[in-house]
Write a sequence for this structure.
């Protein structure tokens, strides 16, 4: 499934890394636009120059590892689109241009069903998307979550229990599901 990743799911590191782990396992095909990557960098910059530098480095790595993921919508494509916030039209334009089936975002209200359906799109929260993937095939989702948990523990130098880690990443349902299944 081709999914456009909104800036709000690219910026939290744990969430982005789980999504990219799933892409590496062929569970999804990630898409983004240069503008979405820049929104991520600007959001990181609000936390300081160091965070911006880290974000720009991570963006460079994403571009290097996923060269086909970056989508540029045709000039003027946004003008014909209608969303509650005109500032989000670029997201919809990139999703259409990239042939996405869904926009993965935390801002579901900004992408109402009636505006997306004519384009064959839907908006999905990250937790709902990952739960659907897990229900379809548990192994890649659990493996991705465990891999990111391991890296997070290595970077932080302390234990990172999976359920609280996923809850902090905005994935409470997935965290509960992985805990309840004995993972």
């Amino acid at each position: 499934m081709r999914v456009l990743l909104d800036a709000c799911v690219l910026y939290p590191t744990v969430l982005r890394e789980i999504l990219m782990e799933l892409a590496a396992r062929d569970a999804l095909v990630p898409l983004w636009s240069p503008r979405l990557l820049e929104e991520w960098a600007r959001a990181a910059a609000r936390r300081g120059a160091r965070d911006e530098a880290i974000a720009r480095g991570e963006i460079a790595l994403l571009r290097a590892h996923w060269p086909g993921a970056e989508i540029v919508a045709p000039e003027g494509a946004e003008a014909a689109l209608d969303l509650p916030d005109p500032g989000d039209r670029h997201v919809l334009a990139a999703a259409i241009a990239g042939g996405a089936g869904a926009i993965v975002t935390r801002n579901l209200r900004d992408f109402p069903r009636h505006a997306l359906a004519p384009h064959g799109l839907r908006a999905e929260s990250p937790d709902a998307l990952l739960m659907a993937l897990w229900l379809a095939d548990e192994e890649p989702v659990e493996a991705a979550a465990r891999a990111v948990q391991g890296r997070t523990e290595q970077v932080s130098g302390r234990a990172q229990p999976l359920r609280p880690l996923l809850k902090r990443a905005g994935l409470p349902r997935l965290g509960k599901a992985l805990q309840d299944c004995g993972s």
About this structure: The chain has a mean pLDDT of 96. Strands lie at 2-5, 29-31, 102-104, 122-124. Residues 92 and 179 are 35 Å apart (CA to CA). The chain has two domains: 2-18+27-125, 130-180.
